[in-house]
Write a structure and sequence with these properties.
Layout: H1 2-7, H2 12-30, H3 35-52, H4 54-80, H5 85-99, H6 108-128, H7 138-146, E1 148-149, E2 152-153, H8 162-167, H9 172-200, H10 209-229, H11 234-257, H12 264-280, H13 285-298, H14 304-315, E3 318-320, E4 326-328, E5 335-336, E6 342-343, H15 357-361
Helix pairs in contact: 2-3, 2-6, 3-11, 4-5, 6-11, 9-10, 9-11, 12-14
């Protein structure tokens, strides 16, 4: 660790200077030698660093989502060139170059924090060894050694011996209890941060190896913090616990206001957005307009949550525009199907029901709607009567030849109308 600390020794002076400046402020409130003054100085250092790293955090979110989008293509490349690792790597790099994706972007916040982490560790280790460092002179060194957080000195570790802890004016039991509680909180916060990312902000429609890797990291990172945490001074544990809590809160904000498309967080966000838009009839703020604009731009590529949101606006008489705004005056019967096409609520025209043979022979059912039964109906069924049996001309009927209705014979069910073919004599 000394070798690594020496590599980052160029940053120990700025880190020690920032801590001393915050200590001068909190020391005037709580006292120069108190644990509150030195502990809050470390917390303020974390907050200052994380504020400066917000742009990198935004890049991390974009890179993570881009990697999730590329997972299906990456899986195809792995299956296609599973026996040629070199070609597989070349195709992967080509895919990253074409899409402008950098896999290392998701690690930028952690990599950027590493110099500050090792610099703070080196500062606290020098305090424990009674060595001045950076802008921390002998007076500040003695003040930091007297500072205790819940009875544990800033420079004490879980693995310290009783004599080392006694030199810092503390008891070994108190130091181990405080450090153990902080290590558990540090690991638990890391686990919860990764878990809420996997359960709420991951596209559930895509099952890729990337998700399996994230699930594995959800358990690996807390174990790593627990193993290495016993060698960290109390001040470093304060630093790392603070940065974990900051990451958890920052991620909760992003999941709530800018969720990953296709995730459970997006479904909850669009439900809240739908209630607000239907109540007020408009979107509020640049963020909501950007979300609506992105959904409209997708067109047929919308997922089920986005289609449900658009259909909900249509049923409420609203329409999402290409610029992210919402207007009124849309047909509420228009809905969007799964393939992106639009369907209306107007029923389709039904074809007339085909009549059976017995219905055709008996004249068919009576016309609906109270129509005159004497009105002749046009039949779409071809008559079985031969053409030569029909009277020539349109008016071949003779007067008085109309048979009485009582003497008209009705065809039996299954019997054909018209002249019957004479039966051939049976041969004896």
């Amino acid at each position: 660790m000394d070798t690594i600390a020496s590599i980052f020794s160029f940053i120990t002076t700025p880190v020690s200077w920032v801590i001393v400046q915050f200590h001068s402020v909190y020391g005037a409130i709580f006292g120069d030698d108190t644990g509150w003054a030195w502990g809050l100085s470390i917390v303020s250092l974390v907050i200052l660093i994380r504020i400066c790293l917000i742009p990198l955090f935004v890049k991390q979110i974009k890179a993570t989502r881009a990697m999730q989008t590329l997972q299906p293509e990456m899986k195809k490349i792995q299956e296609r060139y599973k026996n040629d690792k070199q070609r597989q790597s070349e195709e992967m790099m080509k895919l990253y170059k074409e899409t402008g994706t950098n896999p290392l972007s998701s690690c930028l916040p952690i990599l950027a924090q590493s110099p500050f982490f090792f610099a703070l560790y080196h500062v606290l280790n020098s305090i424990a060894n009674n060595d001045t460092i950076g802008v921390i002179n002998q007076g500040l060194l003695e003040s930091a050694q007297k500072a205790h957080i819940f009875g544990a000195p800033l420079a004490a570790k879980f693995t310290d011996s009783a004599s080392d802890v006694a030199a810092l004016d503390a008891s070994l039991t108190t130091v181990r209890i405080v450090t153990a509680v902080m290590i558990v909180l540090m690991s638990a916060s890391q686990f919860y941060t990764q878990r809420q990312l996997m359960t709420k902000n991951v596209d559930t429609t895509v099952k890729t190896p990337f998700m399996q890797q994230q699930k594995m990291l959800m358990y690996v990172f807390p174990i790593m913090f627990a193993v290495f945490g016993i060698n960290f001074p109390v001040g470093v544990l304060v630093y790392w616990l603070t940065t974990n809590v900051w990451t958890m809160g920052q991620q909760m904000y992003v999941i709530r206001n800018n969720p990953t498309p296709g995730s459970k967080a997006q479904a909850a966000y669009l439900e809240r957005l739908h209630k607000h838009v239907t109540h007020h009839g408009k979107t509020r703020g640049r963020g909501e307009r950007a979300i609506v604009k992105a959904i409209v731009t997708k067109g047929r590529d919308r997922n089920e949550f986005e289609r449900k949101f658009i259909n909900g606006l249509n049923k409420a008489g609203l329409a999402a525009q290409a610029d992210g705004t919402v207007t009124k005056g849309v047909n509420p019967e228009v809905t969007e199907t799964e393939d992106g096409t639009h369907a209306t609520g107007t029923p389709k025209r039904q074809q007339p029901k085909r009549q059976s043979k017995s219905q055709r022979q008996s004249g068919g059912p009576k016309p609906a709607g109270g129509a005159d039964p004497d009105t002749p109906t046009t039949s779409l069924i071809k008559s079985d009567e031969p053409e030569d049996a029909k009277p020539a001309g349109g008016a071949a009927k003779q007067a008085g030849s109309k048979p009485a209705s009582g003497t008209r014979s009705k065809a039996q069910s299954g019997q054909r109308k018209g002249p019957q073919r004479p039966k051939s004599p049976s041969k004896k």
